[in-house]
């Protein structure tokens, strides 16, 4: 094992972070009648009481300011077959992120992907600057779980699946 100092890694840090497998969330909201959303793999559960989830968002994200305007954010955990949706939700055109992706617009304004594994309706709780990203704490107000299904996994910049032993 040859440990390299992070100050020498620069671009390679993306690769290093990419070694850590994660699930993929779709964040979505209806803002003034427009659907806005993005894929997020940098997230973690934080607290049970209050129920908090953290999502780490690039400071230069042009999508987040739209999501920030919404009182509610829909969070969907993508299922193994939703890789295409994950790609589309990170595409360059904010206006077409939900095109041809089955979704539900909740009365609250939260937008959820149909066929996901887990749905969480969240409000903004707090945020913390963290380098070139900001940690946004979202408070989970309502949740629902699918009965079956396995998650989409993001690993080494690719979508993969959980292999059951
Ligand atoms: C699998 C995957 C995971 C992503 N995770 C994050 C993330 O955790 N934080 C983030 O800010 N952007 C993440 N992105 C990028 C956003 O989905 C989206 O591409 C980006 O916000 C687009 O730029 P914009 O916000 O300026 O529209 C991810 C993209 C993909 C495909």
Please summarize what this structure is.
This protein is mainly beta and 165 residues long.
- Anisotropy-based shape: globular
Could you estimate the helical fraction of the residues in percent? 10-25%
Instruction: Please write the CATH class name.
Output: Mainly Beta
Annotation field: number of helices = 3
User: Segments where pLDDT lies below 50 for 5+ residues?
Assistant: none
GO molecular function, one term: riboflavin reductase (NADPH) activity
Domain Flavin reductase like: 17-161
Pfam family, one: Flavin_Reduct
Keywords: Oxidoreductase
Please give a structural write-up.
Belongs to the non-flavoprotein flavin reductase family. Residues 17-161 form the Flavin reductase like domain. Pfam families: Flavin_Reduct. The two termini are 28 Å apart. The chain has one domain: Pnp Oxidase, Chain A. The model has no long low-confidence stretch (mean pLDDT 95). 12% of the residues lie in helices and 45% in strands. The chain is built from 3 helices and 12 strands; from the N terminus they run H-E-E-E-E-E-H-E-H-E-E-E-E-E-E. The protein has helices spanning 12-18, 64-69, 83-88; strands spanning 22-23, 25-31, 34-40, 43-47, 52-58, 72-77, 103-105, 111-113, 118-130, 133-145, 152-155, 158-161. The strands form 3 sheets. The protein has a 7-stranded antiparallel beta sheet with strand order 3-2-6-9-10-5-4. A 3-stranded antiparallel beta sheet has the order 1-11-12, with no helix packed on it. By secondary structure, it is mainly beta. Flavin mononucleotide is lined by residues 24, 38-42, 56-58, 61-63, 86, 89-90, 94, 154.
């Amino acid at each position: 094992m040859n440990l390299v100092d992070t100050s020498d890694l620069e671009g390679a840090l993306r690769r290093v972070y990419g070694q850590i497998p994660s699930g993929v969330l779709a964040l979505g909201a209806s803002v003034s009648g427009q659907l806005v959303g993005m894929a997020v793999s940098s997230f973690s559960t934080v607290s049970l009481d209050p129920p908090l989830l953290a999502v780490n968002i690039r400071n230069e994200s042009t999508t987040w300011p739209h999501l920030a305007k919404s009182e509610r954010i829909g969070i969907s955990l993508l299922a193994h077959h939703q890789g295409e949706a994950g790609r589309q939700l990170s595409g360059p055109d904010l206006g077409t992120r939900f095109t041809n992706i089955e979704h539900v617009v909740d009365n609250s304004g939260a937008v959820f992907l149909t066929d996901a594994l887990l749905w969480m309706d969240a409000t903004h709780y707090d945020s913390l600057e963290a380098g070139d990203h900001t940690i946004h704490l979202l408070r989970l107000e309502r949740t629902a779980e699918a009965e079956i299904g396995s998650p989409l996994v993001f690993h080494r910049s690719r979508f993969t699946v959980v292999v059951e032993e």
